[in-house]
Design goal:
Order of helices and strands: HH
Pfam family, one: HTH_38
Protein name: Helix-turn-helix domain-containing protein
Largest sheet: none
Number of strands: 0
Strand content: under 5%
Number of helices: 2
Radius of gyration: 12 Å
């Protein structure tokens, strides 16, 4: 049995969170955790 992956584009709200978090010095992993996304 294979596990299928689904991919989803970032929406405007997620992009804003990334921009603000990155500007505040948050790590990629911390931002991904906040968005419940993979850090890769």
């Amino acid at each position: 049995m294979s596990i299928s992956q689904t991919y989803q584009h970032l929406n405007a709200q997620e992009r804003a969170v990334i921009m603000l978090s990155h500007g505040a010095g948050s790590s990629v992993r911390a931002i991904a955790r906040t968005l419940a996304r993979s850090p890769s």
